[in-house]
Every structure is written in structure tokens, then in C-alpha cells.
Amino acid sequence: MITAAENSMVIWRLTDGKPGHESQSEGLVNALKRKMDCQSIDIRVSNRIQPLFDLLSSTWPAGKSLPRPDFIVGAGHRTHLNMLAAQRTYGGKTIVLMQPSLPVSFFDLCLIPEHDNYQGDGDVIETRGVLNPITVQGEHHRKKGLFLIGGPSKHYHWDEALVVSQILQVCKQNPAIQYTLSTSPRTPHDFAADIAGIKISNLTIIPYEETGKGWVKSELANAYTAWITEDSVSMVYEALTAQTAVGVLNMNVKKDNRVARGLSKLIGEGYAVRFDSLGHYKKQLHPVLGFMESDRCADGVIRRILETHSSRQPQALTV
Asked: Where in the chain is the domain with CATH 3.40.50.2000?
């Protein structure tokens, strides 16, 4: 049995095994840990049907031997019914990191990206993009840059010639910067080999398959600039959080959509800059300080706890 330290808040983090969802909830939980005395327990969930019966019967076996939760945090549709079943059985406040498949009012708090343009009821914090566990660190060397390449997606067409052309121009326009390029699971298999065959003197290629856990985080900490294909929106927010200057490599939008609109808003507000062949981006490509959505949302969560005047108040960390 896991026991909780006296006066320590308890967070149950429900996970569905999807890296993107787990990154979001990890970002929030880590931020809460930085701000108050709490411990987190990760609980993997998978079944879509069983939690409905658990909810109706006020049972949730996965929490039986665990300390009672103060928060139940989850991202991903598979976590939603499990969160409600766990809450009905053991108490705690539910915090969803997305627009849920169930009514928002079913949960105590929902963190929903502003590009979703949610207009309904319920307690909601709008987020700029999705949360992540990145923190500001590293020296961000001015002569180091990154290219982070995505691939075909629901919202964008993949055009290898367009992407390669922009990479070549950035490298040529900034000869004093040594760039490292990496791909992603969505990048077409031949892309890394194709661009390696061009022999660009200030470009090193490390395919996704050759990177380890934490590689992107480490590289963002060392690089001053990161050029990211615009389909990789979550990576854009990670780079902003790391206080790396963000450049966007243009891709063709399939149709007007909320993701593209959100990125355009981000660029319009000066958080990132689009590539242009004339190099005008150089005047605007700089790090943006203070983009810490996980910490901002953690502050919002804590304020809401205090506003409820519950018997268990979060104990602030002292330094």
C-alpha cells in the first residue's frame, strides 16, 4: 500500500499510454509539485466500458490500496469515465487537460486550448496550446540551431520539396550557425536520407530513431533557435516553453482548421515567426520570455482550491 505524507496533497494522474497525453498531464503535475507540497501517483487506464459500470456502482478497484486523492488529473478520452468513477468512489477534484468527450460540467476543472474556442458551461482555464513538462534551462548558444521535422497530418499536406527548400535557405542565410536536424515518427522514411544526400556544411542530421528519451529537451536547452514544421504544433509550444527562439517552416494547410488558426494567432502575437525567403524573419526571431503555461495553469488550479475553502489547504513550498 502506498501511504501519503502528513499534510501532503495527493494527485492521482490517470494515463492512457499515449505520449502526447502523458506529456500534458506530466507538465501540470510537475508544475503543481513546484508550487506546493504534494505527491503524485500514476495510474494506467485502458478500458472504455468497465469504468461506466464502476461509476454506476461507485467502485473503482484501481484506487483501492492508494491514499485518497485531492486531485484526479487526466488527458485523453480513455481517462474521462475513469476519473469520474474514481471521484465518486474516493473523492477529490477532477482536472481534465482537453475538451472532454463528456460535458465539461461533469468535471471540476477543464484546461482547454484557446484555439478550441470553447463557449459552453463549466469551470475552464484556456491554455495557449497544450501543456508540456519542459522547463527553462541551458545556455541557448547563439551558434546552435535546430530543425524539428514532422510529416503528413490531419491538418497539413506533406511537401518534401517545400520543406527541403526552406531548410537549405535557412542554412545558407545563417552560415555561422551549426544546425542539427531531427525527424519524428510521422516523417516519411526517406526524408532524412534525401536531405543528407545534399551535403549541407552546417547541418547535422540525427533521425528520430537515433535519439533517446529527453533528446529534444536537451537540444532545446542548448540551441538558440528552433525551426519547426508547422504541423508539429506541440513541439512549437515545447520550444517556446524552453525559451528557444521559434521559427516556423511553412506547409500547405488542407483546410481552415482550429490548429492552423491557433498557430497563426501565436505568430501574430510575436511568439514565433514564419520563414520567408528574403530573410525578414531575422529581425523577429528571438526568444520569448515567460511562456510557462504549465506554471500559469498550476497557479489557476491552486487559486480554485483556495476559493473552495476546503478543509485540506495546499501547503506552499518554502525556499
From this structure: 9-133+293-308, 141-283
Q: pLDDT of the chain along its 319 residues, tens only? A: 555 556 789 999 999 999 889 999 999 999 999 999 999 999 999 877 888 888 989 999 999 999 999 999 999 999 999 999 999 999 999 999 999 989 999 999 999 988 888 888 889 999 998 899 998 888 899 999 999 999 999 999 999 999 999 999 999 999 999 999 999 999 999 999 999 999 899 999 999 999 988 899 999 999 999 999 999 999 999 999 999 999 999 999 998 788 888 899 999 999 999 999 999 999 999 999 889 999 999 999 999 876 664 545 555 554 3
For residues 97 and 111, the answer to whether their CB atoms sit within 8 Å is yes
Task: Report whether 109 contacts 96 (CB < 8 A).
Answer: yes
What CATH architecture does domain 141-283 belong to?
3-Layer(aba) Sandwich (3.40)
From the options 1.10.443.10, 1.10.10.10, 3.40.50.2000, 3.40.50.1360, give the CATH code of 9-133+293-308. 3.40.50.2000
